[in-house]
Each structure stands twice: as structure tokens, then as C-alpha cells.
Design a protein that fits this description.
Oligomer: single chain
GO cellular component, one term: plasma membrane
Keywords: Phosphoprotein, Repeat, Transport
Strand content: 35-45%
Shape: globular
Number of domains: 3
CATH topology of the largest domain: PH-domain like
Helix content: 10-25%
Number of strands: 20
Largest sheet: 8 strands, antiparallel
Number of helices: 10
Length: about 375
Amino acid sequence: MQNVVSFYVTLRDPCNESVLIEGVLFRANYLGSTQLISEGQPSKAMRMMQAQEAVGRIKAPLGESQPATEVDLFVSIEKIMVLNTNLQEIMMDHALRTISYIADIGDLLVIMARRGSTIRNVGPTGQKKTQTKICCHVFESDEAQLIAQSIGQAFQVSYVEFLKANGIDEGTNMMKNVDYQDVLNQQEVYGEELYMFSNKDMQREVILTKSKGEPLGVVIVESGWGSMVPTVVLANMLPTGPAARCNSLNIGDQIISINGISLVGLPLSTCQSYIKAAKHRSTVKLAVVSCPPVVEVLIKRPDIKYQLGFSVQDGVICSLLRGGIAERGGVRVGHRIIEINGQSVVAVPHEKIVNTLARSAGEIHMKTMPTSIFRLLTGQIIPHYI
């Protein structure tokens, strides 16, 4: 995949050839489009889930080839267009006002555009519900976040121009007030993990001695999207197994490599296969970074008008806005929220957790841990040792 290419261009409006539109052009790979039905006014969390559903429909599974077309993405304060690379053919054309959501998920960009609404009667009372057809386009780019920010900036500039056209001269001040980037710039990357992974002295080598054919006796889980290093976490140990017997490993330790093979960035199943293969050895060498199983999170949110950038379902973080204040504060997908501002939320209903987060501003302190570890420690699941 090529790096993003962006530059200013002037194009003719396809709806009116006499009108020229100025905008920014980005190079990206177009993966495909899908249509979703949305009811009512979905929350930002619901829209993020819809974006992830679109990615799930279009993105090819790991290991399979991904069909893609190289395109130019044109962003202006009036519309967003997708053109072929020689700018001769317009593949898609959406007025900016029809764009309902933009999400960057890793190197993927999802643009969601409304395609019309219908009103239907529901139930015996004849209650009316609005359904909106949403067209979701999925693109791939090394700078998906930059493109998403540019589209967001286009909305801000368009709004300021609207205010000026109607005699409201507050454009600069209002733009300053809604600038989410200012909040991002104030948010520090938080967590002891940053120090642990940046300091080579924190990484240590653990050598396990055991009988050939004896499994290590461990349970591992993913560290979670948003962690400093994507690797696996030691979630449980068989009390009589080699891992527990060595007295050098703890629950929460992140395993960087096994017998010189790096586990960083590998799928959980691949990491498990490497650990299972080590049962045939009498000596196993691990490189680990000691991390507590409970992660300290600090989110700096000046005002509730700024989105937190993550969604929660039954206390579990299920989606995360890449590059947002939550990710910078240490929030990770797949983690269970244990505390919010010193108050336990382990047995708290979902609605109360959501309301607490929605009303929280200033410094928001949370404690989280991988859901699998939480369920193992609380006896909700039976450990399967490898």
C-alpha cells in the first residue's frame, strides 16, 4: 500500500460544469461499499459500531487477498468525490451535508453517507419510526486518520462560511471552540506501560525448565487494541505447571517472545501455537515485560461536549476511536472497566456506567483489565492451559 498523497486541486462540479470547486486530493485504495439501515438518530457509539460492521462485511479475512482499486479522494467544503486516478471518471459524488459519519479504524477509513429516509408505522399503536439508508464506503490508506481529520475540518469551514453568509461573524471563535484537535494536543499518552516498554531494562528473560512433552501450563489472552505493544498477556497459570513453578512470572506479564520468536503483532492463535510447540522442549526461554493485570487509565476531557471516543457494552470496551483522547489515555478494546473515579463498577448496570461516563469531565480516572483475565479471576470461565 502506498503512502497517502495529498494536494490542492480545482475540479468542475459534475452537477454544474460552469462551477469550479477547490479541494484537497488524497490517494487511497477503495475496498468496497455496503448499505446499512439506520433507525432514528443513532449515537456516536452506534455509528462507530455501524462503521465496524461495514468493515466486517467488506474487508477480506486475514490471509485472503483483498480486492482494491486505487482512487483519488476529493474533499472540499461542498462535497466528497471519489475519482479514478487520472481524474477523468467520477465514481462517487456525495454532498458534504449528506455525510453522517467518518471513522478511521487503523489504516481503514469509513465514510457513511445518507441516501434518503422513509417513515413506517411500527406495532399496533401505529408509532412512526424513521429509517435511513446509509451507504458505507471503505478505503485503505496509511494516513486514514489525516483524511478523516481533513473531512472534519471541511465540516468546520463549511459551517463558518454558513455563519458568515448569514451575517454571524463568529467564525474564528466558534471554530476554536469545536476544535477537537486542541483537546488531543493537551492529552498526554498516559500509563506506566509507556515507561515499561521504552526502557530496555524493564524487559527480562525467564528460563523455564521442564520435562519434554510437558505443557507450560499457561493461559494467554490478547493485550487489546490500544496497548503500546500488541502482544499476548499471561492470564492464568496452572499451579503445578512449569510457568508457576519457576516463580518468575506473574499474571499480567506481557510475553514479547518465546525461544527467540517474537510474538508482537501476531494473532492470538499463532502465539498459542508457538507456546504449544514448546512442550517438546526441556528448556523454554521467554522475554517478558512485567505489567500489572489492572491498567490505569487517565482521560483528560475539558468539557462533556468532547466525545470520549469509545463505546461500552455491559462494562466491556467494545470499540475505540483511533487517535482520540480515550486511546491516548490508555483505553483498550476488549478490557473490562473495574473502576471509574475510584468507584467500583463491577456490579453496576450498563446504563449507569454509560451515564457516569457521559457526565464525566475534567480528569477521568479508570481501572480496566482484559475481559478474559477478569472472567478467569472471578471464576466465570474455566481455564484451558496450554
